[in-house]
Design a protein that fits this description.
Elements lengths: L1 H18 L4 H8 L4 H29 L2 H21 L3 H28 L6 H29 L6 H7 L1 H9 L19 H5 L4 H14 L6 H10 L3 H29 L2 H20 L3 H29 L5 H30 L2 H21 L3
């Protein structure tokens, strides 16, 4: 578990850096006059640009076995992301910064997940991904809390660009953790490698089914920026919106490892289905909650959903994939989710602007229930 711990620390420091910035992005855009529809387009474009790299990054990981080097390259873009934010003067600059950040995520996700999966046996796969996710979300929570106290202490007069500059420090610390990572080298197959899309056609049907489910679900799972906007529409100010996001990440961090271990015992399906149902209940809550207490409860439930799904689905994809395609399939999983996020965020923004804040959340809840139903009916245990 040594590798898992240090990979988790890389994500821990990187997410401190990222989440010191992320909750401020929708607030920053609103100060520039951006509408929810424009915000959805920005988030969707940024995520989808990155997603296109994830499957190719996974393919290169399988082909060249340079997992550590590719992951390092992806994590290093976090520094450039903050620099672009510092010099951005319009929503176009913010879009460019978000694209840089998501491209980095697209590069690093597949090789990192392969290294996690290769560091443990199959019986502990859920525990490993759960531990990694716990450290990842703990970093998010700390980053958000740092931002909360800084912004609160300056009563809204603080220059956001100074905070963007400070957030570079934990990103550098995360890169330093790579010195402690040991890469497991898997011998490359002797036969000539075919293009990855030909190999994907040979993948187990259950994994293909789950990738379809991921696409359907993600069409209703828009950017988290809409959760922050929803909280603000109920009456939370900018500072307390950041604190709500902290509650979500803290809950996810606490529960990620226990739920990952539970999936090792009861099976991935028995966590994925309740996870999608929890998401549907959460989004319905966001749609109709009209009090601060209701919004707080939904952020807690959103943390529970995240802990139930994120690490468990990666463990499922990793163990269901052939060894020589593990990076490719982990990347394809992330790519499918990312491609769906562009229409998801655009749809959410248009529905919000045209019909009100509740409608995009009802839409997301319905698609989540459809995804859960497909798993119940068609996925084997």
């Amino acid at each position: 578990m040594r590798n898992i711990f240090f990979l988790g620390l890389i994500s821990f420091f990187t997410d401190i850096s990222t989440e010191m910035v992320y909750p401020l992005i929708p607030l920053y855009l609103m100060s520039m006059g951006a509408t929810p529809a424009l915000m959805g387009i920005i988030e969707g474009i940024a995520e989808s640009l990155a997603s296109l790299l994830k499957v190719y990054s996974g393919y290169l990981t399988d082909k060249f076995q340079k997992k550590k080097a590719i992951a390092f390259l992806g994590y290093s873009t976090g520094i450039f992301y903050k620099l672009v934010l510092i010099f951005a003067t319009s929503w176009i600059g913010i879009l460019g910064a978000r694209a840089v950040d998501r491209i980095g995520k697209g590069i690093r996700t597949s090789p990192r997940d392969v290294m996690v999966s290769e560091s443990v046996d199959k019986e502990n796969m859920g525990k490993a991904f759960g531990l990694h996710k716990a450290l990842d979300m703990l970093g998010s929570a700390i980053g958000i809390l740092i931002t909360y106290f800084i912004i609160r202490s300056f009563s809204g007069d603080y220059d956001y660009k100074n905070l963007f500059a400070i957030s570079i420090i934990p990103a550098i610390l995360g890169l330093c953790m790579f010195f402690f990572i040991t890469q497991k080298n898997v011998p490359a197959p002797v036969k000539k490698r075919e293009p990855f899309w030909k190999n994907v056609s040979k993948v187990d049907g259950q994994l293909k089914l789950y990738l379809l489910v991921v696409f359907i679900f993600t069409l209703g799972n828009s950017s988290n920026a809409f959760l922050l906007l929803r909280a603000k529409s109920v009456g939370f100010d900018d500072v307390n919106v950041i604190l709500l996001y902290f509650v979500y990440t803290l809950v996810a961090s606490i529960l990620a490892m226990p739920l990952g271990k539970l999936s090792d015992k009861v099976g991935r399906k028995n966590l994925l289905v309740p996870g999608y149902i929890a998401f549907a209940l959460c989004y319905l809550g966001f749609a109709f909650a009209d009090s601060s207490e209701g919004i707080i409860a939904m952020f807690v439930l959103y943390g529970v959903y995240t802990a139930m799904i994120t690490g468990v689905e990666r463990a499922f994809v990793a163990e269901a994939s052939p060894q020589e395609l593990k990076g490719t399939m982990l990347g394809l999983h992330s790519t499918i989710a990312g491609v769906a996020l562009l229409p998801a965020s655009v749809i959410a923004g248009v529905l919000w602007t045209s019909f009100g804040a509740a409608v995009p959340f009802v839409f997301g809840a319905c698609l989540s229930l459809v995804a859960a139903g497909i798993l119940v009916v068609f996925m084997k245990r």
